[in-house]
Specification:
Layout lengths: L2 E7 H25 L17 H28 L1 E2 L4 E2 H22 L4 E3 L13 E3 L4 H28 L1 E7 L4
Helix pairs in contact: 1-2, 3-4
Length: 177
């Protein structure tokens, strides 16, 4: 069995891996359904079609190919720099996850009211009304949220562009289509 060089973008590699994972799932389903069968005593029937060696070998081949493409994709992400950002795709993915976490925090903070009357605001028996005050500038939280939201969008677009245009190659067995 020979080898050939296959060129991928990050996006096409993800689709290729998904296709191989689906094929692996299909074979494992066949294995689970057809690796055993039941006959009543005295009953005769042809066993379901199942070739142990063929399924085991094919799943191993798929795993090997998936591993090689995933590894090449990880290496590609680690070394490919997004020019406008000055960071690798890998670092941009980490940064994006962190920025989205910060965005969720800012979303909560921007919704805070500067001063809010508490509904169960009775202090002892004196009937005093209690207020809750924001301990920060709510307008600043809103501004920071909007700025970060735009920044995330810009980074995502640059990441998407790199994932759809930058390529890497992997040596794969000839049987891979």
């Amino acid at each position: 069995m020979g080898m050939r060089t296959v060129t991928f973008t990050s996006a096409s590699a993800a689709k290729f891996i998904k296709r191989l994972e689906n094929e692996k799932s299909r074979l494992i389903d066949i294995e689970q359904k057809n690796s055993t069968y039941v006959l009543a005593q005295g009953e005769e029937s042809e066993p379901p079609v199942y070739d142990y060696d063929e399924i085991i070998d094919r799943v191993d081949e798929l795993d090997n190919t998936i591993r090689r493409v995933r590894h090449a994709l990880h290496a590609f992400n680690a070394r490919t720099v997004i020019p406008e950002e000055g960071v690798s795709i890998d670092e941009a993915l980490i940064r994006l996850a962190q920025m989205n976490g910060k965005l969720r925090r800012l979303e909560r903070l921007r919704a805070t009211e500067p001063k809010k009357r508490l509904s169960s605001g009775y202090f002892g028996n004196k009937g005093l009304i209690e207020y809750e005050y924001a301990n920060f500038d709510v307008k600043q939280a809103l501004s920071d949220y909007e700025e970060l939201y735009k920044r995330i969008g810009d980074l995502q677009l640059r990441l998407d562009f790199a994932n759809q245009t930058e390529t890497f190659s992997v040596e794969l067995d000839d049987w891979i289509r």
